[in-house]
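Subject: Re: docking follow-up (zinc ion)

Dear J.,

Thanks for your patience while I sorted out the input files. As discussed at Tuesday's group meeting, I've set up the holo structure prediction with zinc ion included as the bound ligand rather than trying to dock it afterwards. The sequence and the ligand SMILES I used are pasted below, so you can double-check that they match what you have on your end before we go further.
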Amino acid sequence: MLGELAHIGRDPATNGYVRDAWSAADLELREWFAGEAGRRGLDLREDRNGNLWAWWGDPSVTPGVVTGSHLDSVRQGGAYDGPLGVVSAFQALDLVRERGFQPGRPLGIACFTDEEGARFGVPCMGSRLLTGVLDPDRARGLADDDGRTLAEVLAAAGRKPYGLGKDEETLGHVGVFVELHVEQGRGLVDRGRPVGVASAIWPHGRWRFDFRGQANHAGTTRLEDRDDPMLAYAAKVLAAREAAGRYGVVATFGKVRVSPNNANAIPGQVSAWLDARGAWERAVRALVAELSAGEQVSEESWTPVVDFDETLRDRVAAAAGDVPVLATGAGHDAGILASAGVPSAMLFVRNPTGISHSPAEHAEEADCAAGVEALAHVLEDLCR
Ligand SMILES: [Zn+2]
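The structure tokens for the complex came back this morning:
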């Protein structure tokens, strides 16, 4: 199934994936999801926020057990982050059916919209809108790099931008959510295990820094006459690295926009995005406060620590075959649902290099199969 998706949104120059929300690639992936749901006789629904749900059984009668992930990617991402969870969900459903299992409650497969936030800057957009933690007016006004707002992009895709927002009815269908995901670190490699369960998601956020200066000629402007915002930006990158070490967190400037972005011009403005995360919210907040002092900074997203439900976590770990429990620095829709009060859990599949958000991201086929097997056991246990 991953092979069927391999060509969609792949950059032939790098083999990295570019699957922005609501792009042609994303629409093709959504069609693929609908096809897989249809082939299995599942009831396909798209909610008001663009999330896709494929149901075996009717969740308006009894809330169901839901598994799944997302199909969008970071720019130049790998093949597994997101799609592995969606593909494994279909495979696990096939497996429990092959075994003749009759679920005692509905079983659903979810595909959340715009998990990565690659296009509009806010990660987990679909689950944040669904749960009401993201204001729909703010979401509609978010613009991509071409200046198109989410409202415009949704309308062009035939969706209703004014339908966005908290959706109690859809949320009420989700009795429990289990997301399988490729691990984005080396926890399982170090433990020599193919599958693990999440204990917590670190608190994390994104901040936009705007450095303003005076655009001018790179050849004729004397050094002492320059007001060059690139220098302030460069100093901030180094300061972030140094402060992260001091606070025991991670901090990254991974996106920068330079205006006018000419090789022969001193920039007039540099905008850069800081991503900061850590086990302790106070440490992350202190780092951001220190870096923000005297700067023009806006917080684009913030997600507090998510401690997954311990009872569910232990049940999932046992059903998956007594697998190890690990914390992660990566955000996920499961974390957003957990914060909204939906009992949620995550399974991780080993990533031999730990590399993620890169074309080098990988999972061995045998480990993917172990993940499907574990997920099938978990679904059987939860659907009993
Ligand atoms: Zn992901």
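A couple of observations from a first look. Residues 70, 81-82, 115, 181 surround zinc ion (CB under 6 Å). The two ends are 27 Å apart (CA to CA).

Let me know if you'd like me to rerun anything.

Best regards,
T.
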